[in-house]
C-alpha cells in the first residue's frame, strides 16, 4: 500500500515540476514585450553595430580622393595570414626626387580573420575597420579588393 | 515442425552480438565534428572510442611561423567559447619577458574572462537542455548570452573571436559604456538565473536522466586529468584561479565550487554555481577598475629569451596550459597547448560503460566538449 502511495506521489511531484517549468514559459508567453526576437533582414535599416565592430578593412578617402597610406608595408608584415599585399611604385616628384608610393593596396577579405593587427600597427592610421557584415558573394574573386581608389593620391601632411 | 517451434521459443539459442555504431561525426549531440565509435549490446554501451582530428587545424604548428603578437588571434579559434581566457594565456609571454602589466589591464582581463565564463556556461546550459530533449532552454540561454556578446562587441569589436588580450595589455581601452552595461547585465541576470533552475534543474525528466548517471570518482578525475567544472564536481580541487592566481584573481574573494558525487547532475549544478561565483567576482571588480594605461610599453618586435615557459589559465572547460619553447628568435620554436577538452573527452569511455546510449548523450553534454579545443 505504501509503495502505491509513493508511486502516486511521485507522479504528482513530477507533474508539479513540469508545471513550475511551464510557469516560466507562460510568463514570457503572456508578456510579449519582454521578447527579444528581431526580424532580420527586415530590420536591416535600424540595426546599430558597435563602432568598434570589425567587419572589413577599408581605407578612408577624403573628398579630394586622397588617402593617408604611404605604402610602407607594415600592415602586410603584421597580418598573420597574408591577407594584405602592398604593391608600391617609384615616382619622381616635382622637385626631381625619387619616391616610393603605393600603387595597389590589395586586401583579401576572404582570408582575413578580422584580428585588427593591421589597423592597430599602421603608423599613419590609413586603414580602419568598417561595420559591414553581409559578406556573402557568389564569386570568390569579388572578395579581393583594392583599397586605394583609382587615381587617388596621398594626403598632404602625412609623415613618411 | 515441433522441433522448430522449440528452437524459436527457447531463448538460450538466440545468439546476441555486440555491434558498432558511429556516433558522429555529424551527430547533433556531439556539438561538432567528433566521431565516437560506440560498441553496443542492445542499448547498453560497452565501449566508447573517440576518433579525433576531423577539424584539426594545426594551430600549434602555425604558431611556429607567427610572431608573439599574432599568436593570440589563433587561440580564439581553439575553444571559441572561452576565447578571452585563451587569449589571456599571453600572460605566459609577459612572464617570460618580465613585463609588469598595468593594474587596469589585470582588472579588465579578469572581468572579461568572467563574462566569457558566464557566456560559455549559458551556451552549455541551453545545449545540455536541448540534448536531453528540452528545446525551450536553447532559446532562453541564447537570449541571455546575447547581452554578453553585445558587451563584447562594443568593447572588443567582435562577438566570438575577440583577440582582445595582446602581450602587454589589451587591444582597446574599455568602452565608456562598459561598466554600466556590465552592471545592468548582472542585475538582470541575477533575476534570470533562478528561472534556469525552475525551467530545467527541478524538472523531473531531467533529474531522472541525470542523477546518479555516469559517476566519475575523484581518483579517476585526477588520473584522467579531468579539470574544470567536470573535475570539480568529483571533488578534485583544480581551479587554477585559486591555486595559481593570475591577473586580478588574487584580489577577489570567491569560492571554488566543489562537489563530491561526480554524477551528471552534480556537474550540471556546479556550472550553475560557477555562474553565481563569476557574477560575484565581476561585482567586486567592476567599480574599482583603476585608472591607467590599457597596455604596457612593448617593443615592436617581441623576442622571448631562450628557454621554456609555462603558464596555466582556467578556461570555462578546465585548465589550459601553454608551453612555449623559445630559441630567442621572434617566433617560438615550439608551442604546445594543453587543452582541457582533450583530457576530459577520454574520461568518457571510463564512465559511460554499462549505461544506456541515451545516458551517453547526457554524460557528454555535461562534459561540455568543444571540438576545436580537442582537435586544435
Ligand atoms: S595601410 Fe598603413 S601600414 Fe599599410 S602600407 Fe599603408 S601606411 Fe603602411
Ligand atoms: S584584420 Fe588581421 S587578418 Fe585581416 S587584413 Fe588585417 S591583419 Fe590581416
Keywords:
heterodimer; A: Alpha-Beta Plaits; two-stranded antiparallel ribbon; 3 helices; 7 strands; B: 376 residues; alpha+beta; 3-stranded antiparallel sheet; 8 strands; binds iron/sulfur cluster
CATH topology of chain B: Cytochrome-c3 Hydrogenase, chain B
How many beta-strand runs of chain B? 8
Q: What is the averaged pLDDT score of chain B? A: 87
Mean pLDDT of chain A: 86
Strand order of the largest sheet of chain A: 3-4-6
CATH architecture of chain B: Orthogonal Bundle
C-alpha geometry of chain A: elongated
Structural class of chain B: alpha+beta
Gyration radius over CA of chain A: 29 Å
Report on this structure.
The complex is a heterodimer of chains A (160) and B (376). Chain A contains three helices and seven strands. Chain A has 160 residues and is an alpha+beta fold. Chain A has two domains: 36 residues; 99 residues, Alpha-Beta Plaits, CATH 3.30.70. In chain A, the strands form three sheets. Chain A has a three-stranded antiparallel β-sheet with strand order 3-4-6, with no helix packed on it. The longest helix of chain A is centred in the first third of the chain and has 29 residues. The model of chain A has no long low-confidence stretch (mean pLDDT 86). Chain B is an alpha+beta fold and 376 residues long. Chain B has one domain: Cytochrome-c3 Hydrogenase, chain B (Orthogonal Bundle). Chain B is built from 17 helices and eight strands. At the A-B interface, α1 of A face α7, α8 and α9 of B. One iron/sulfur cluster binds next to α2 of chain A.
Amino acid at each position: 500500500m505504501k509503495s502505491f502511495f509513493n508511486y502516486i506521489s511521485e507522479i504528482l511531484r513530477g507533474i508539479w515540476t513540469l508545471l513550475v517549468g511551464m510557469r516560466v514559459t507562460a510568463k514570457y508567453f503572456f508578456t510579449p514585450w519582454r521578447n527579444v526576437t528581431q526580424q532580420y533582414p527586415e530590420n536591416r535599416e535600424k540595426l546599430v553595430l558597435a563602432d568598434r565592430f570589425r567587419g572589413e578593412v577599408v581605407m578612408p578617402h577624403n573628398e579630394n580622393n586622397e588617402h593617408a597610406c604611404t605604402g610602407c608595408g607594415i600592415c602586410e608584415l603584421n597580418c598573420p595570414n597574408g591577407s594584405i599585399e602592398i604593391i608600391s611604385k617609384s615616382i619622381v616628384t616635382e622637385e626631381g626626387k625619387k619616391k616610393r608610393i603605393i600603387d595597389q593596396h590589395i586586401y583579401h577579405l576572404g582570408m582575413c580573420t578580422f584580428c585588427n593587427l593591421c589597423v592597430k600597427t599602421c603608423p599613419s592610421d590609413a586603414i580602419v575597420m568598417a561595420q559591414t557584415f553581409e559578406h556573402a558573394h557568389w564569386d570568390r574573386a569579388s572578395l579581393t579588393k583594392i583599397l586605394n581608389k583609382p587615381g587617388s593620391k596621398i594626403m598632404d601632411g602625412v609623415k613618411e | 515442425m515441433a522441433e522448430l517451434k522449440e528452437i524459436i521459443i527457447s531463448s538460450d539459442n538466440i545468439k546476441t552480438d555486440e555491434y558498432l555504431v558511429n556516433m558522429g561525426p555529424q551527430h547533433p549531440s556531439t556539438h561538432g565534428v567528433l566521431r565516437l565509435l560506440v560498441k553496443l549490446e542492445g542499448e547498453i554501451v560497452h565501449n566508447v572510442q573517440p576518433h579525433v582530428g576531423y577539424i584539426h587545424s594545426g594551430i600549434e604548428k602555425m604558431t611556429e611561423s607567427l610572431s608573439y603578437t599574432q599568436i593570440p588571434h589563433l587561440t580564439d579559434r581553439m575553444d571559441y567559447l572561452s576565447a578571452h581566457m585563451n587569449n589571456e594565456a599571453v600572460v605566459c609571454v609577459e612572464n617570460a619577458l618580465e613585463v609588469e602589466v598595468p593594474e587596469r589591464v589585470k582588472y579588465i582581463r579578469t572581468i572579461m574572462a568572467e563574462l566569457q565564463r558566464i557566456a560559455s556556461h549559458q551556451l552549455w546550459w541551453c545545449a545540455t537542455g536541448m540534448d536531453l530533449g528540452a528545446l525551450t532552454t536553447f532559446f532562453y540561454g541564447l537570449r541571455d548570452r546575447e547581452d554578453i556578446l553585445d558587451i563584447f562587441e562594443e568593447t572588443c569589436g567582435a562577438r566570438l573571436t575577440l583577440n582582445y588580450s595582446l602581450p602587454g595589455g589589451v587591444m582597446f581601452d574599455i568602452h565608456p559604456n562598459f561598466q554600466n552595461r556590465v552592471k545592468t547585465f548582472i542585475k538582470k541576470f541575477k533575476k534570470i538565473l533562478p528561472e534556469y533552475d525552475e525551467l530545467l534543474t527541478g524538472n523531473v525528466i531531467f533529474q531522472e536522466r541525470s542523477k546518479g548517471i555516469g559517476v566519475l570518482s575523484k581518483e579517476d578525475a585526477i588520473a584522467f586529468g579531468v579539470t574544470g567544472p567536470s573535475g570539480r564536481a568529483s571533488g578534485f580541487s583544480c581551479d587554477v584561479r585559486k591555486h595559481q592566481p593570475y591577473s586580478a584573481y588574487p584580489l577577489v574573494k570567491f569560492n571554488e565550487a566543489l562537489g563530491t558525487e561526480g554524477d551528471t547532475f552534480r556537474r550540471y549544478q556546479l556550472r550553475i554555481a560557477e555562474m553565481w561565483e563569476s557574477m560575484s567576482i565581476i561585482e567586486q571588480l567592476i567599480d574599482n577598475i583603476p585608472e591607467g594605461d590599457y597596455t604596457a610599453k612593448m617593443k615592436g618586435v617581441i623576442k622571448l629569451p631562450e628557454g621554456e615557459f609555462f603558464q596555466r589559465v582556467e578556461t570555462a572547460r578546465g585548465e589550459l596550459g601553454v608551453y612555449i619553447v623559445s630559441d630567442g628568435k621572434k617566433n617560438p620554436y615550439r608551442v604546445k597547448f594543453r587543452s582541457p577538452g582533450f583530457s576530459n573527452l577520454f574520461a568518457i569511455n571510463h564512465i559511460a560503460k554499462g549505461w544506456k546510449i541515451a545516458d551517453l548523450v547526457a554524460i557528454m553534454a555535461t562534459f561540455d566538449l568543444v571540438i576545436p579545443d580537442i582537435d586544435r
